[in-house]
Amino acid sequence: MSSKQVASKGLHRQMLVRLAVIVVAMFAFGYALVPIYRAICKVTGINVLTKQDVNAAEVVKNTQVDTSRSIEVIFDANERGNWVFKPETHRMMVHPGEIVTIKYQVKNNLDRDVQGQAIPSYLPMKAAADFNKLECFCFKQQPFKAGESKEFPVVFVINPKMPKDVHTVTLSYTFFEVAGATAQAKP
């Protein structure tokens, strides 16, 4: 074997090792995306996997209504896809510690059954920690038949510990079809 062939084999082997390292690094990055995504959502306040507010019941038990203070709550609704999605009212004044119920109407304008999901967000972001939902359609995916309309309550309480400089809170939901999911009939 000539020295040229030996050098060529060495380069091929080196290239193969480099490609293998790249493949392993790409696999590791893909595997790490889920925890990275969750960390980014936590830091930015974007919560795709909405969980029930575990401390909401505790806040309700341990507070009294603070009638000396009012906070304006603005309700916003955005849909992604062929939905009609809106709150029954767009704004209201709320006293911290007061249990409030608002309803959202959702209509599936598609000619097929689907699953929908709502994702909440808050402005200012610092209000999210003190805006406690006791009941919300955003806690799970919602099945819809073709053309079906539903009304969903959101029961919430604003913690009296909310910073005093917060006078307005916007609760904004985005409602979208869950890709690949089909509506499951409840037994």
From TrEMBL:
Keywords carried by this UniProt record: Copper, Membrane, Signal-anchor, Transmembrane, Transmembrane helix
Free-text function comment from the UniProt entry: Exerts its effect at some terminal stage of cytochrome c oxidase synthesis, probably by being involved in the insertion of the copper B into subunit I.
Name of the protein described by the UniProt record: Cytochrome c oxidase assembly protein CtaG
Family matches, as PANTHER family: CYTOCHROME C OXIDASE ASSEMBLY PROTEIN COX11, MITOCHONDRIAL-RELATED (PTHR21320:SF3), CYTOCHROME C OXIDASE ASSEMBLY PROTEIN COX11-RELATED (PTHR21320)
InterPro entries (alphabetical): CtaG/Cox11_dom_sf (IPR023471), Cyt_c_oxidase_assmbl_CtaG (IPR007533)
UniProt cross-references to Gene3D superfamilies, sorted A to Z: Ctag/Cox11
Family as reported in the entry's similarity comment: Belongs to the COX11/CtaG family.
Membrane topology reported for the UniProt record: Single-pass type II membrane protein
Major site of localization recorded for this protein: membrane
